């Protein structure tokens, strides 16, 4: 039987804490979501001032990234090349989520919503970096 790495609660907290600190440092009001490799939500936090819809969008972006094992923003390029992928209903294809990997395996994704998509992705990158 093959052993797979998985996100622990401590891993999730490190990712979210790094995203939150970067958001607070820049004065951004966002939602932060972490999902496992199947796209199931593990954590969601909506910072004060973030619009309610940001929670749904952050989860959707993270699910997209986890399902396809790539940045959510790269999915738009894939959709142009393979429009049938839209039928897969994998989430939201907008920049702001990045896959979380450990030893070459996708173990989940972090998604951020509330600012410009590039800024959201910047915050997600802080979470990825915290995982090491």
Can you offer a commentary on this structure?
The protein has a single domain (9-131), classed as Haem-degrading domain (Beta-Lactamase, 2-Layer Sandwich). The chain is 42% helix and 20% strand. It is built from four helices and four strands; from the N terminus they run H-E-E-H-H-E-E-H. The protein has helices at residues 9-26, 53-68, 75-81, 117-131; strands at residues 31-36, 41-46, 97-102, 105-113. The protein has a four-stranded antiparallel sheet with strand order 2-1-4-3. The radius of gyration is 14 Å and the shape is globular. The model has no long low-confidence stretch (mean pLDDT 94).
Which helices and strands, and how do they pair?
Layout: H1 9-26, E1 31-36, E2 41-46, H2 53-68, H3 75-81, E3 97-102, E4 105-113, H4 117-131
Antiparallel strand pairs: 1-2, 1-4, 3-4
Helix pairs in contact: 1-4
Task: Name the features.
alpha+beta, 132 residues, Beta-Lactamase, globular, 42% helix, 4-stranded antiparallel sheet
């Amino acid at each position: 039987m093959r052993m797979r790495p998985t996100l622990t609660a401590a891993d999730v907290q490190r990712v979210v804490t790094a995203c939150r600190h970067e958001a607070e440092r820049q004065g951004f009001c966002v939602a932060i979501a972490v999902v496992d490799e199947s796209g199931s939500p593990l954590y969601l936090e909506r910072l004060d001032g973030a619009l309610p819809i940001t929670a749904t969008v952050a989860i959707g972006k993270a699910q997209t990234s986890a399902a396809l094992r790539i940045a959510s923003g790269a999915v738009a390029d894939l959709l142009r090349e393979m429009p049938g992928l839209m039928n897969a209903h994998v989430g939201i294809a907008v920049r702001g989520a990045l896959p979380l990997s450990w030893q070459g395996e996708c173990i989940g994704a972090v998604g951020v919503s509330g600012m410009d998509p590039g800024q959201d992705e910047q915050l997600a990158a802080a979470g990825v970096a915290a995982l090491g």
